[in-house]
Amino acid sequence: MSDDLVQCDVTAGVAVLTLNRPAALNALSDALMAALKARLEALATDPEARVIILRGAGKAFCAGHDLKEMQAGRAAEDKGAAYFADLFSRCSEIMQLIPTLPQPVIAQVHGIATAAGCQLVASCDMAVASEETRFGVNGVNIGLFCSTPMVALSRNIPRKQAFELLTTGAFINAGRAAELGLVNRVVAPEALEAETRALADTVAAKLGAAVRIGKRAFYDQIDMTLPEAYAHTGAVMVENMLLRDTDEGISAFIEKRKPDWAAE
């Protein structure tokens, strides 16, 4: 069943993960979250997967948590307190897992990306959106402030704009999402798959070891002071320079030839 909920296809170095609850707008049910986490963890050690694309089946990318399932949790004696704590903890684990994966993760977004769905976009390393997509952290409209989605969102876009979205429940279009930095680029609906794949293919063609080192360093240095960040990334560049394939890549550039990189 989990294979059906999150489908996976790895072709030419690119793994495409598809959230597959189209009738529920790919809402993050307990089962879907478990399947997504399992797929991501498996890809982390898959040498064939150099880049990951995350997308949704049907009309939407992801509509957030499954509210019907959440309401059913209230039947417990504690009115759902333990279930809700566990739910948000499990969701947060997925969002924190994405930046730690060795591969860049690109969200391919269409339809809507709301609440935890918007959080999922913000947690990915890059995002390509169809121009008809709407984004929102709109839980406040039903009395539930999007506090956990706020973590990823406020690390993607300016604070005042994030706070406005969180407190008004307003939706923004893809163009505005790009202006704020939530997505990298906006494309026509019919070009979404091809444009996302082109970006993935471009990254997949780079030296995988360098990309893995670079992604790890990117997130490590963000919260450091400026001196700490330079000290850390300097050491990372030494590590990178000592790779056999980096030596070959630089030599090939100087000699104006294609690098002969070892199979990774």
UniProtKB/TrEMBL annotation:
Residues that span the membrane, as ranges: none
SUPFAM superfamilies (UniProt xref): ClpP/crotonase
Keyword list, A-Z: Fatty acid metabolism, Lipid metabolism, Lyase, Transit peptide
Keyword Cytoplasm: no
Entry-linked Pfam families: ECH_1
MF annotations from Gene Ontology: hydro-lyase activity
GO biological process: fatty acid metabolic process
Domain of life according to the entry: Bacteria
Family in the record: Belongs to the enoyl-CoA hydratase/isomerase family.
NCBIfam families in alphabetical order: PRK08139.1
Described purpose of this protein according to its UniProt entry: May play a role in fatty acid biosynthesis and insulin sensitivity.
Name the record gives this protein: Enoyl-CoA hydratase domain-containing protein 3, mitochondrial
Species for this entry: Rhabdonatronobacter sediminivivens
